[in-house]
Design brief:
The complex is a heterodimer of chains A (about 775) and B (about 60).
Chain A (H helix, E strand, L loop, with lengths): L4 H12 L3 H8 L6 H6 L6 H7 E4 L3 E7 L6 H8 L1 H4 L3 E7 L4 E7 L5 H10 L8 H5 L8 H25 L11 H5 L1 H19 L1 H12 L6 H20 L7 H18 L19 E5 L5 E5 L8 E4 L9 E6 L1 E4 L1 H4 L5 E3 L4 E2 L4 E2 L4 E5 L21 H4 L3 H27 L1 H14 L3 H20 L2 E3 L3 H7 L3 E5 L12 E5 L4 H12 L4 H9 L10 E5 L3 E6 L2 E6 L1 H4 L10 E7 L2 E8 L7 H8 L4 E5 L7 H7 L6 E2 L4 H13 L4 E5 L5 H6 L2 E6 L11 E4 L6 H34 L5 H29 L2
Helix pairs in contact in A: 1-5, 9-11, 9-14, 11-13, 11-14, 12-13, 13-14, 13-18, 14-19, 14-29, 17-18, 18-28, 19-28, 19-29, 20-28, 28-29
Chain B lengths: L2 H25 L8 H14 L15
Classes of the chains: A alpha+beta (about 775), B mainly alpha (about 60).
């Protein structure tokens, strides 16, 4: 029940102490990083609070906060006991799958800011972004559940009312059948009719609408024969009971719609804790600090930033608009925007672009543009983001549906024409029977159940797909484009190991202090890795660009850098990155920086290149070209210095050559390419961290399985084709009864559910086997 | 009036009653989150036994 031992301990401590232990923790709350303190000042601004809360009267407010950290049972327990931590919180309710907590609190006693700070202190910092105030919450769409409910309810009752007909088939009042059943036959039939009305006109409505839309755009989708089947079933059954020809097919009718809707429901697996629709707004803060003319600080909404505003950007905060740096030590991480992993230094007067993250202290900047006109956010003005990918794609079921409809209609016509000459009284009967039995229920179910099941299997393997259509598209991929930074490299810092003579404590201290002054990425990595040492002021320090560092303290003297610089003739190994150490003119050893590419990328690329053409597009400079070239198969083209728009255009040009393109990326800089591609997969080190809008999210630990997932999608499509063949078999049997004019309601009532259930069983079995193979 | 009308009416009324109950439960959002209540239920025991008189000392209000 607990995700880890730690959580269990926490729970035990809390529950034995009746949460009182928490108050001890609270007294230490002063140790909260100061970065958090100022971060939520904007929550004191009434206009922002008003947009965030769900309900507000003078005394009480209800707010629904997204807390990415929620991950196990004890999280639920702690968050639902917030009222014990603060008496002015009336109650809180966690929605675990969505990772949200809805808190009701007394707004006269505790403000939203205080509430958020309280959550942050106990380790559940809510994530509040621009997205929260810009989009109005969509009401939950539960109509499918209602429709299933109606269909299921009617199906059960109609079955129940049909029982007399099943057991008492050949008899009638005159031939001495069961008195009760025959006497009230008409009543039973009209009751069935009544039950089927809401099923046809409410539950089955979508099929009519979809068929109508398809026909209007001259497209024969699978919904056309389904709608035709439903319509024929209903009309024929009504005519049958009205003129007392028979009992009608109301049981098959309601059952058919019920099963079809169940298929739809099954297909609709959603990962409520993931979002596939994110744009820059999910990354951007709601508010920033503006400096007024009088030099005071105030929080303003990001959307209200105007040209010329003076903004204060704190450590770890995102720059929301393009602007000019006024004062401060700017050290901006643009990995978000460009994919370039190295943070850049900016001087006063330099231009800053939106999307960069300040890494080092407070800076002061002047806005040059508003949010929507900034360099990064303009990307979202591209028409790609307005289009809905799903409308462009024709599914396998739809393309089969067309052929199916044509053949069903021709069979029906031929059979009717035959009977018109042979025995005209039966012609209409046969015509309707063909349409009824040929209703492609099983075909319509094959795809949702196969793909729905695959979606769940992939989900268990940490490959989260937006919808089932993505599997179909993935199966057709013939070109794959990879981003470099963060996608095929890990975002974790590279590590280094030491090789050589051990360093003394004094030497290590001097090493660390020398590194402290340097801003070279390797120095930063090494500096972060080394143990803490007292800060000493160096007597001498010199940085030789592109070579190394030299530091001096008292008698001690150290040189750090390339082999030539350090002055030792060590064999020059080009495969890897080294930092050599020389202390007091004696060569000590070297730090080896390990490969930071993802595990198994060579294998993934080699395997994939067999059936898919590959390319790497990187926003980075060409520095890594040589190393990457060694890792990947020879013919994989590498492109460097690609801006976000370049990536998008590159994919567009491939698509114009009728390629089905898969884009694998990670950051906002890939957002355009991900949206343009046929399938966009976002790689994520931690799925709780946001990924840009995409079709699928792949957990980084499963990167090496990517190709096997693509192959599994292809196999899933094969399973669907087999199911089509199987259901066609049923249709042939059914058509035999229909064409020969001997379709009894009971045969329809047996054949239709039988075909549906066996198809569902077949696809479920096959996909489960496929899932096992994926291990 | 035959008894069958009475029986049919009763059976349909019962069915309709459950149907309405289903609709009401969906509408109230009971099916929106199918995981959290299963966990919450397990913690509820503790809450009942620990329901000592509201003991929160105001001076320890963590937000102040």
């Amino acid at each position: 029940m607990f995700c880890c031992h730690g959580c269990k301990t926490v729970y035990e401590i809390f529950s034995t102490n009746d949460l009182s232990y928490y108050y001890d923790l609270q007294s230490a709350a002063g140790s909260t990083p100061t970065a958090i303190e100022g971060k939520y000042d904007f929550l004191d601004t009434a206009a922002i609070v008003e947009k965030l809360v769900e309900f507000d009267d003078d005394r009480m407010q209800i707010v629904n906060l997204y807390i990415p950290h929620v991950h196990c049972s004890s999280c639920i327990w702690i968050l639902e006991n917030l009222n014990k931590l603060d008496p002015f919180i009336n109650g809180s309710q966690v929605d675990f799958p969505k990772k949200t907590v809805r808190i009701t609190y007394n707004s006269t006693k505790i403000t939203l800011r205080e509430l958020v700070l309280l959550l942050a202190r106990i380790g559940y910092e809510p994530y509040i972004s621009l997205d929260d105030i810009d989009t109005k919450k969509k009401p939950v769409d539960r109509s499918l559940i209602y429709k299933i409910g109606v269909a299921g309810f009617a199906f059960g009752n109609v079955m129940f009312l049909s029982f007399p007909e099943y057991f008492d088939l050949a008899s009638s009042d005159t031939s001495g059948g069961e008195f009760w059943l025959n006497r009230y036959q008409t009543l039973f039939r009209w009751l069935m009719f009544t039950f089927s009305l809401p099923v046809v006109f409410y539950s089955g409505r979508d099929y009519f609408i979809s068929a109508f839309k398809g026909l209007r755009s001259q497209l024969l989708n699978t919904d056309v024969p389904i709608a035709l089947g439903i319509f024929t079933l209903f009309v024929r059954s009504t005519v049958d009971i009205a003129f007392d020809y028979g009992s009608g097919f109301f049981d098959s009718l309601t059952g058919l719609i019920f099963f079809l809707l169940l298929g739809k429901f099954f297909q609709q697996k959603t990962y409520s804790f993931l979002s596939f629709e994110r744009d820059y707004k999910s990354y951007f803060p709601i508010a920033v600090t503006r400096m007024t003319l009088e030099g005071k600080e105030e929080s303003i909404q990001v959307n209200d930033i105007k040209r010329g505003d003076r903004l204060l950007i704190r450590n770890e905060e995102l720059i929301p608009v393009d602007g000019i740096l006024i004062t401060g030590n700017a050290h901006i991480d643009y990995s978000f925007v460009t994919g370039e992993s190295e943070a850049v230094r900016k001087k006063s007067g330099d231009k800053l672009f939106a999307g960069g993250k300040q890494m080092n202290g407070v800076i002061d900047m002047e806005a040059l543009k508003s949010v929507s006109q900034s360099y990064l956010t303009q990307l979202w003005g591209n028409s790609v983001f307005q289009e809905d990918k799903s409308t462009k794609f024709r599914t396998l079921t739809d393309s089969i549906g067309k052929r199916f409809t044509v053949s069903v209609l021709s069979i029906a016509t031929i059979a009717t024409v035959f009977w018109l000459f042979y025995e005209p009284s039966k012609a209409l009967n046969v015509f309707t029977a063909v349409l009824i039995i040929a209703c492609p229920c099983a075909i319509a179910l094959a795809s949702p159940f196969t793909l729905g099941n695959m979606l769940r299997i992939f989900g268990r393997k940490k490959f989260y797909l937006k919808n089932t259509q993505t599997i179909e598209q993935l199966a057709q991929i013939d070109t794959a484009i990879f981003d470099k930074t963060g996608t095929i490299t890990t975002s974790q810092k590279s590590t280094a190991t030491y090789e050589g003579m051990p360093l003394t404590a004094a030497e290590e201290s001097l090493l660390k202090n020398t590194l402290r002054a340097s801003n070279h990425p390797l120095s930063r990595t090494l500096y972060d890795m080394l143990a803490e040492h007292n800060i000493v002021t160096l007597d001498e320090y010199e940085e030789y660009l592109g070579q190394g560092l030299e530091g001096c303290k008292g008698q001690e003297h150290i040189k750090i850098g390339s082999a030539d610089f350090v002055g030792d003739h060590v064999p020059n190994d080009t495969l890897g990155t080294f930092v050599h150490i020389n202390s007091n003119d004696i060569y000590k050893g070297k730090y080896i920086f390990h490969n930071q590419y993802r595990e198994g990328i060579s294998e993934v690329f080699t395997d994939m290149s067999k059936t898919i053409s590959l390319a790497v597009l990187s926003g980075d400079n060409a520095g890594e070209k040589f190393r990457l070239g060694k890792l990947l198969p020879k013919h994989v083209p590498l492109y460097f210095n690609q801006k976000p728009e370049n990536k998008l255009e590159f994919i567009k040009s491939l698509q114009n050559r009728h390629k089905k393109v898969l884009m694998v990326g990670d950051g906002l800089n890939d957002a355009g390419a991900l949206a343009q591609s046929d399938v966009g997969i976002a790689i994520s080190e931690n799925i709780n961290v946001f990924s840009p809008a995409c079709d699928a999210i792949l957990d980084a630990s499963k990167f090496k399985r990517l190709y096997s997932y693509i192959q599994a999608s292809r196999k899933a499509m094969r399973i669907i084709k087999w199911s089509f063949a199987l259901s066609l078999l049923y249709n042939v049997v059914g058509l035999y009864f229909a064409v020969t004019g001997q379709l009894q309601p009971v045969i329809a009532a047996i054949l239709m559910p039988l075909s549906s259930i066996s198809i569902v069983a077949f696809t479920t079995l096959m996909t489960t086997i496929l899932g096992r193979e994926l291990e | 009036m035959s008894v069958i009308y009475v029986l049919l009416t009763i059976s349909i009324l019962v069915a309709v009653f459950f149907f309405i109950a289903f609709i009401v439960s969906v509408r109230s959002g009971q099916y929106d989150d199918s995981y959290t209540p299963s966990v919450r239920m397990l913690f509820e025991d503790e809450l009942v036994t620990k329901e000592t008189p509201t003991e929160i000392p105001t001076e320890k209000n963590p937000t102040k």
